Amino acid sequence: TMNSSGISNEMQSLLTNKKPLFLMSMSFNMKKIVELINKQSMYNDLIKSMSENLNISKTDIEGFLGGEFSFSLSDITTKKVNVTEYNYETDEEYETEKDVEVPSMVLSLSVKNNNLTSKLLTQMQAKNENGYWVFPIPSETFGSNLFIVETDNAVTLTNDDNAANELVSRKKFSYALDNDDKNLVSSNPFSIRLNLNPNDMPQGIAEKLRTNSIAFNALNEFEKITMASDGLKSNLTVKMKDGEENSLFRLFQMIDKAVMN
Hints:
- The protein is of the alpha+beta class.
- It has 11 helices and 10 strands.
- A 10-stranded antiparallel β-sheet has the order 4-5-6-7-3-2-1-8-9-10, with helices on both faces.
- The longest helix is centred in the N-terminal third of the chain and has 14 residues, at about 40-55.
- The chain is globular and about 65 Å long.
- The model has no long low-confidence stretch (mean pLDDT about 85).
């Protein structure tokens, strides 16, 4: 059910607006997936219900997604948000301000019918303003609204208003993936990359890690973890920084040190 290669150049340009801490990409053969799930009676009942509720044909629903998916997390920041809490002693709700750890995320999906995108978002009561759709979500979850931007052949969801505004004006992000990330997501129908080196992480995350010297020093020996799969076989790679000793020996040393402390 997966394609033979990774995501397209267009989807790569919608993956992230800054250096990602974590990224994921997938490329599915939607024709094969639709053929497979059409054999399930539960699926047919679900599609029939969606078709009736949204006034959209079964063919349009099944042909909506293009099969490419990308996700990135590029930062975690602390934001002050207003939340509603409940006082059980007085049996009253009240508004209060609290600090929330907010991940900066971008999710993009390839689509074949943007007219259907607009129809679905309208049905979901999202608001179309400033060139993008705005979907209210709890501020204590993501720190802001969810912004949905339609481009030529994709839909991008993000809680980062800067990312949303850039897509509205440019239809793609100016940030270019480095060669390693580009090769990873373009060559493999499923890929994951997690940055482990705190010196390459967003400042807020690196500062939090520095409060735990053992964790910071251990992670400082690593660069990244990557995983790639074609649906049949998978490869997992843990890349460490260059050092004098064997990497496995250095890993055992770190574990021993952590246990002793």
